[in-house]
Design goal:
3-stranded parallel β-sheet; single chain; globular
C-alpha cells in the first residue's frame, strides 16, 4: 500500500512511498517468499520508490540485504494521465463508476492525457531524468503499458528464465498485469477482470 493508495488517489507515475501498512504487507510477502526456500538469481524492480522499498524489505527478510537488483523504468506502474493525484471516489461521482472502471481496468482505453505543465508530469521528476524524453508518456492504457513492459521482458528477463534462473520482480498492479497477460496467455477480454492485490506474492512456474 502506498500513501496515495491509502488516500484513494490515482498514483501511476507519481513517485510516492509506502505507508506503514504497505511496509508490513511487504514484510509479510517476504516471509511467505522465504517459506518457499527459493534461491533467487536475479531481482528486478521499477524505478519507483514504493516498488524499490518493497523489494528492499523482502531482501532483508531473505537475508539478501546487500544483493544487487536491476531497476527498470519499463516496469513502472501504468501512467494514469490527467487522473494522477485525483481522488477515485470523487472521480466516480463526477464521471460515473463505469467510466472509472473502464479507465482503470480496460485493455486499450487510456485516461485523458496529462498536460506537460502538470506538476506531476514525469518530466518534472528527478527520478525519471534518465528516461529518453520521447519515451515518457502523458497517459497510458494497459495496452500501452504492455507495449513497454514486453520488450524489456523479452530482452532482459525471458533469457534468464530460459536458462532456468529464478527471478523475483517487485513492480506494480498494471505492469504485473501486463507480464501475467503474456506469461499466462490471458485474453484482451479476460485481462479486464484480472487483478493483482498489493503485497501478494505470485509464484509462476
Amino acid at each position: 500500500q502506498s500513501i496515495w493508495n491509502l488516500e484513494r488517489r490515482f498514483t501511476g507515475w507519481a513517485d510516492v512511498d509506502l505507508t506503514d501498512h504497505g511496509k508490513s504487507e511487504a514484510t509479510y510477502a517476504g516471509q511467505l517468499i522465504k517459506e518457499l526456500n527459493i534461491e533467487f538469481d536475479v531481482y528486478f524492480t521499477s524505478v519507483q520508490i514504493r516498488a524499490i522499498n518493497t523489494l528492499k524489505i523482502i531482501l532483508d527478510i531473505l537475508n539478501k540485504k546487500n544483493s544487487e537488483f536491476k531497476k527498470a523504468w519499463e516496469l513502472n506502474e501504468r501512467h494514469y494521465g490527467a487522473l494522477t493525484g485525483l481522488n477515485k471516489n470523487e472521480m466516480m461521482k463526477k464521471l460515473g463508476t463505469q467510466q472509472i472502471h473502464i479507465f482503470r481496468r480496460s485493455w486499450n482505453v487510456p485516461p485523458p492525457s496529462m498536460s506537460k505543465t502538470h506538476p506531476e508530469h514525469p518530466s518534472k521528476n528527478k527520478t525519471y531524468t534518465n528516461i529518453p524524453a520521447d519515451k515518457i508518456p502523458d497517459g497510458e492504457s494497459l495496452k500501452n503499458t504492455f507495449e513497454r513492459v514486453m520488450p524489456y521482458y523479452e530482452e532482459n528477463i525471458k533469457p534468464l528464465l530460459s536458462s532456468n534462473k529464478n527471478i523475483l520482480i517487485s513492480a506494480h498492479g498494471n505492469s504485473l498485469r501486463a507480464l501475467c497477460k503474456k506469461l499466462l496467455n490471458i485474453s484482451n477480454k479476460k485481462i479486464i477482470d484480472f487483478e493483482i492485490p498489493t503485497g501478494n506474492p505470485l509464484l509462476i512456474t
